[in-house]
């Protein structure tokens, strides 16, 4: 009898241990757990999910396994958790809490969507577990006229111009839409070209849209920011370079106005070691590396550099065997001693320069 009782107790103990092992603890999400309302509500300008719960509350406890199981598999957006039971001296800027767990979807530090209590949160779990990345998901961000694009007041935003029938747009869609979904709704807008009235009557500010589809254009307060990415390869390279970071404008060529020279000044402007960079603002490969290249020049110390806008510079090219843009040359004593041509070779050179694998003193 004692052996039987011992066996029953042992089996019960193992069963309970197995149940506990299967449960997900908030400790599993230590990296996503925040400490204050302010931190939770200002952690990013991009789109993210925020979960407020009370670890001492029965309603939160009943929902714990469902919501944590969801978060464990969720990859579409960044998410954060805040235990309101630990906060005594501050309040949420999103309004008074309802005494129930809450899910917020945040964009630009404002509430985009709100789900209060277990019923609504379970609806959220179902909806976001089965999310389909289609253009309909961005209905509120679709523009139908050029006037709407130019009326936006934002220091940096993106216009993604596409055609439903464009093969390159279709091929880009599986990468572009999940990436766009992570960004603030105020930072990226869409335009399907065939839906635009008088689509061929482009305003001067948007003439770049004639470059083909898909095209991703950076704008600032209704003006073209002199930065765009055209075609599947360039668009995907751009979104890969931005990743989960904020959308922002690179340095502008105008920031280096004093460094611009004409063709007739090249090769002879100085006999000292210096860089000459040849580009065109309408060259998609130039625009692809523009940010990295201008950051490099901004950081450059002790070595002179000059920029040549091949679309505007006066004179003719003096570089022997010039092959087009983008092109970065190293010159000394009025002779080319190093050259890096194209949107692959130039970033590789910059990476080698920063890592110390390239020593400019070798010249």
* String of helices and strands: HEHEHEEEHHEHEEEHEHEEEH
What is the CATH level 1 assignment of the largest domain? Alpha Beta
In CATH, the homologous superfamily of the largest domain goes by the name Glutaredoxin
Number of beta-strand segments: 13
Tally of separate helices:
9
Under CATH, the topology of the largest domain can be stated as: Glutaredoxin
Cα separation of the termini: 92 Å
Given the C-alpha coordinates, what overall shape results?
A: elongated
Q: Could you explain how this protein is built, in words?
A:
With 363 residues, this protein is of the alpha/beta class. The chain has three domains: 114 residues, 3-Layer(aba) Sandwich (Glutaredoxin), CATH 3.40.30; 108 residues, Glutaredoxin, CATH 3.40.30; 110 residues, Glutaredoxin, CATH 3.40.30.10. Helix content is 32%, strand content 21%. The protein is built from nine helices and 13 strands. It has a five-stranded mixed beta sheet with strand order 1-3-2-4-5. Strand 12 and strand 13 form a beta hairpin. Helix 3 runs parallel beside helix 4, helix 6 packs parallel to helix 7 and helix 8 runs parallel beside helix 9. The longest helix has 21 residues. The protein is elongated. The N and C termini lie far apart (92 Å). About 2% of the residues have low confidence.
Helix-strand blueprint:
Elements: H1 2-22, E1 33-34, H2 37-42, E2 48-53, H3 58-73, E3 78-83, E4 102-107, E5 110-116, H4 117-129, H5 146-150, E6 157-162, H6 167-181, E7 188-192, E8 215-220, E9 223-230, H7 232-242, E10 274-279, H8 284-299, E11 305-309, E12 327-332, E13 335-341, H9 342-355
Helix pairs in contact: 3-4, 6-7, 8-9
